[in-house]
Amino acid sequence: MSRFRPPSIPPSQITDETVWKKRRRIMQAAGVLGAGVLLAGITEAGRGGGRKKEDDRLEPTPYRYITTYNNFYELGTGKREPAENAHYLTTRPWSIEVSGECEKPGTLDIEDLPRLFPTEERIYRFRCVEAWAMVVPWEGFPLSKLLKRFQPTSKAKYVEFRTLYDPERMPGQKRNVLPWPYVEGLRMDEAMHPLTLIATGLYGKPLPAQNGAPLRLVVPWKYGFKSIKSIVSIRFTEKQPRNTWHVLQPDEYGFYANVNPAVDHPRWSQKRERVLGSGIFADKQPTLPFNGYAEQVAGLYRGMDLRKYF
Ligand code: MTE
Questions:
Q1: Model confidence over 118-146: pLDDT tens digits?
Q2: Which domain holds residue 232?
């Protein structure tokens, strides 16, 4: 695969301008302007590369949309319910068990994460399988850093993730809408890819409960249901994990779930997407293959029939 290059979305287009300007001053003062992922857009432009054409149509997604229009069935099935029920989900204490095919299984305490895995800002497109899209300035660290610490063996072909199961803190689990706990999985090379993130915050603030506090997965080239929230367990496996939505509706949701305008959902088209916050009369925009990250990830699927492995 070619050298990893973070996608070139100009931060000024995503973050509220005042917040971004302030942060830019801090970065300049620290002498790191042009060094970080946060400033990928600027460095690209500085090199004369300019922005990618498709980035021109990006609209900033304000914090209030990212945090009040959610899919998090553990906190309710309505789009506003996760924010309304956020107070149920207390996130301290919190630990993550890492097990399965690895040399050093163990437990991580949430309080130790900042020391072990310093965070950075990653501005990613996010595309739900329901055909809405947004752009999110995540705060997080590459999943690969966490996984390497536990020394996966050669038998580790996949990684399985589980969400907390606790109906008191996740009242949605009192209803049988999904088989609980929520489970997701990635192939090992997908999990180790530098774009794959563990997010602990957004817009420079700790992750709100409705967005998957205290930590969630973010896989920007896949439909949002792969980005599992409020993780308590990570397991290296030899077999492909049985991810929740696939178990529930295997004809509608696959394991791979790569964003693909050429493969429609059985009940709706995936060719276009609605941008959150753009208003009900706004035109939809075209869906991009791999959600705009084809250059970085298409190689992972070379030779695979993406209609079969949807
Ligand atoms: N993780 C858990 N545990 N439970 C869920 O219901 N919903 C998924 C994903 N992760 C979900 C989850 C879906 S369908 C989407 S689109 C994203 O979370 C939504 O993330 P957001 O609410 O932060 O936008």
A1: 999 999 999 999 999 999 999 999 999 99
A2: 11-301
